[in-house]
Design a protein that fits this description.
The structure is a single chain. Helix 1 crosses helix 2. The protein has one domain. The chain has a two-stranded parallel ribbon. 57% of the residues lie in helices and 19% in strands. With 53 residues, it is α+β, with helices and mostly antiparallel strands. Strand 1, helix 2 and strand 2 form a beta-alpha-beta unit.
């Protein structure tokens, strides 16, 4: 599997879904929410608002 291509595809999909908007996500500190937060930040930068729960 080409992991770099997978990451880039996910980033493109996030950008497509969010468009020019802002989004929020919850970060628990686990692996799943940490990966989602990292991908979201790479895709959206400061337009991703993360809440640590």
């Amino acid at each position: 599997m080409d992991y770099r291509a997978f990451v880039e595809e996910q980033i493109a999909e996030i950008r497509k879904e969010v468009g020019e908007g802002t989004t929020i996500n919850a970060l628990s500190g686990g692996v799943d929410s940490s990966v989602v937060t990292a991908l979201g930040f790479r895709a959206l930068g400061n337009r991703l608002k993360t809440v640590f729960i």
